[in-house]
Amino acid sequence: MIFSNSLIQWYLQNKRDLPWRNTTNPYAIWLSEIMLQQTRVAQGTPYFLSFMDVFPTVFDLAKADEEQVLKLWQGLGYYSRARNLHKTAQYVAFDLGGVFPATYNELLKLKGVGEYTAAAIASFSYQEPVPVVDGNVFRVLSRYFDIETDIALASAKKEFAALAFELMPKDMPATFNQAIMEFGALQCVPKSPDCSICIFNESCAALQKKKVAQLPVKSKKLKVRNRYFNYLVVSDDDDNTVIQKRSSKGIWYNLYEFPLIETEKEEDFDCIADLLKKSDFGSHTIIGMMEDNQKSIIHKLSHQHLHIKFWKIKIKGRIENGIDKEHLKTFPFPIVIHNFIEKE
């Protein structure tokens, strides 16, 4: 109990004032937890506040159009989170009468809700004594107790969850869970933590054994795939353009983009001009074509590096169902395309 008491005392003195910590409303907590998956607090907070302003209840989110949800999510990445968020809101609102499940096991049945998110909602909203296990928890516990279990293994989560449950004061699950995550986020950080000011600097096993930099152990490395995207930014006599919706499952599903030519490697002007003739625009009279940037924009996703070029193409006549610049800005785009449109 010394570990837990010290940790909670540290938390009460050092915790950040975050908007979702001032409520036990499961809707707000669920929303924040989905947003904070794969996203830093500083980046996610403005999005959380915007969503709560536009969709103050689960009914408001459920009744929204998916494109409105994706537009508001624009820039957060991992867009499947937003689509699952919308579907889950509809299920909770229309099938469950707006009432979120009140137990960890029931919460796990919601689309887009995994073990970590279910534990967070169950403990923060309903005070169910279930431990959260995220990267922060892995790091804090592996260092304090000198645990060399490879956290990439499927069995690791069970091992760390069991230890966290053992340490958790059963009458304070929310505070304990918040405390251990906050400690990992602010004090026991991944690289070069300042152990000289740590409350555990006399009891941390990794510090005593000079193993802080080696823990936690994680062997799995993600293979990164390189892809080469050439976007055709067409402009007609009315200065209208054309876009398309990404309908195939994968990155950016249901977001919009300019017509795309994907190549095996980075290609030059002559190659794209040749491929353009075989595209839907081959039948149009092309007045001019230029590359927006000499160098590709490299947009890094967790498992893919996209090498993106924008090719500006001026055609004679009018495009059928062309979109003007103001209307263009209302569609949900991947952030790299949104940024290109904004600077035009």
Describe, in short, the structure shown.
By secondary structure, this protein is of the alpha+beta class. It is built from 15 helices and seven strands. Helix content is 43%, strand content 12%.
Estimate the mean pLDDT confidence.
93
Q: How many helices does DSSP assign?
A: 15
Sheet-strand content, in percent, reads 5-15%
The top-level CATH class of the largest domain is Mainly Alpha
- Rg over CA atoms: 24 Å
Tell me the CATH architecture of the largest domain. Answer: Orthogonal Bundle
Outline: elongated
The structural class is: alpha+beta
The CATH superfamily of the largest domain is identified as: Hypothetical protein, domain 2
Low-confidence stretches: none
Q: How many strands, what sense, and barrel or not for the largest sheet?
A: 5 strands, mixed
State the share of residues found in helices, binned by percent: 40-55%
Distance between the termini: 59 Å
Compressed to H and E, one letter per element, the order equals: HHHHHHHHHHHHEEEEHEEEHH
Cofactor: [4Fe-4S] cluster
Enzyme class: hydrolase
EC number: 3.2.2.31
Catalytic activity: Hydrolyzes free adenine bases from 7,8-dihydro-8-oxoguanine:adenine mismatched double-stranded DNA, leaving an apurinic site
